[in-house]
């Protein structure tokens, strides 16, 4: 399974953390990031994501909406395992359920720090191999199973230029 882990774009302040909205910079970051990811998928003859799972907080919902629009409307669903306070084990349990249900192809997750970077480190089995995902950053993995060291990094891209890092 191809797995893309996407951190939401830059967000502004709000009375509650869950209500923070993307700034114009954040919207631009996400738009550039998803276009770079889409171009890489095409050049690598890789399917675009068919399912986008996201934390239901405002900024991640907005990020998922931008991604979904740019990718010609794949299915999108909120996922409680991706909200702040949840851990890598929660995300891996959700991935296990999806894989057992026959989910194949390309899956995209939208979440928050520190979870996104902890998940990348865990799946690669090599903490610190890649720097933490900045707002709007993404990591693309080839996932054998949702466990430690069960993934291979295929692309790592950060704003503002989204050049590929491996």
UniProtKB/TrEMBL annotation:
InterPro entries to which the protein is assigned, alphabetical: His_PPase_superfam
Superkingdom of origin: Bacteria
SUPFAM superfamilies named among the record's database cross-references: Phosphoglycerate mutase-like
Gene3D superfamilies linked: Phosphoglycerate mutase-like (3.40.50.1240)
CDD domains: HP (cd07040)
Name recorded for this polypeptide: Phosphohistidine phosphatase SixA
